[in-house]
Design goal:
It is a single chain. Helix 4 (150-156) packs across helix 5 (158-166) and helix 5 crosses helix 6. This protein has helices spanning 13-69, 77-87, 96-109, 150-156, 158-166, 170-178, 212-219, 222-229, 243-248; strands at residues 123-134, 137-147, 184-196, 201-209. The protein is α+β, with helices and mostly antiparallel strands. Strands 1-2-3-4 form a four-stranded antiparallel β-sheet, sandwiched between helices. It has two domains: 15-71; 77-229, Nuclear Transport Factor 2, Chain: A (Roll). This is BZIP domain-containing protein.
């Protein structure tokens, strides 16, 4: 009498296939996750390298332009423009000797009655390029990064802050006012230098920076942006609109 096989000990083909398929799916998922992480790291490293390379290019351009123009004295609009961005690349440093050096530079290169415009403390400025538009005028195109804080809002957008805390429509205003806090805004703009060849100094310094675009991207609509700038002490071109205020507040945080 022949012995019958015990079918209960045999593997189930469908279950084996399912396990194999699940194994391969999990393996593909892990491989894809590792690939995405690797690609993300490559992109991050490339962006950092590109940023460093761009800054190096700007610095080399400065050196090239200086050599080509044979600038041997300070009394040149090109030299003053380059020095301006070197001095103010991190804004106005009010600490000790650094502030003295900055003010000495302003006194030496600017006319006594010149309003130099808004000076931020917590900023980073990068010079992109310099274009000479006339014999005595130069335009510097730059990128400015600033951080918005609650003190910034109180100093430059007091009406918005007042509406948030002293009126009934606090919900919308508070949402708008709270959104930029802690955010880093990147502004693209320019500085125009006008040179007096007789007195060897800058007689006009016109700064412009597009504050509207980054706020629009942050807030999402023009209505909210309009509410921010309503009765503000700064305009969308990032200049103070109250002359007396500039003398009372030389910087903000």
């Amino acid at each position: 009498m022949s012995q019958q096989p015990d079918t209960r000990k045999l593997p189930f083909p469908d279950e084996i296939k399912a396990n194999i398929a699940a194994y391969h799916r999990e393996r593909r998922r892990k491989n894809q996750a590792r690939y995405r992480a690797k690609q993300h790291q490559l992109i991050t490293d490339q962006e950092a390298y590109n940023s460093e390379l761009q800054q190096e290019i700007v610095e080399l351009r400065w050196k090239r332009e200086t050599l080509m123009l044979d600038i041997t004295r300070r009394d040149s609009v090109w030299a003053v423009a380059v020095k301006y961005f070197s001095v103010f690349r991190l804004g106005l440093d009010t600490a000790g000797g650094a502030c003295t050096t900055t003010l000495d530079f302003l006194r030496a290169t600017m006319a006594p009655d010149l309003d130099a415009g808004t000076v931020f403390r917590d900023i980073q400025i990068r010079l992109g390029r310099l274009d000479q538009i006339s014999e005595n005028s130069l335009v510097a195109y730059c990128t400015t990064s600033i951080t918005i804080t609650r003190s910034t809002l109180s100093s430059l957008f007091p009406r918005l802050v007042d509406q948030c805390f002293n009126h009934n429509n606090t919900s919308k205003c508070y949402r708008i006012a709270d959104r930029p806090v802690g955010q880093r805004l990147v502004l693209y703009g320019s500085v125009r230098f006008t040179w007096d060849t007789t007195n060897n100094c800058v007689t006009s310094l016109i700064t412009k920076a597009d504050m509207l675009s980054p706020l629009l991207r942050l807030l999402g609509n023009l209505e909210d942006v309009s509410l921010v700038f309503r009765h503000a002490r700064i305009n969308p071109e990032c200049n103070l609109v109250v002359n007396s205020y500039a003398n009372q507040h030389s910087h903000f945080y």
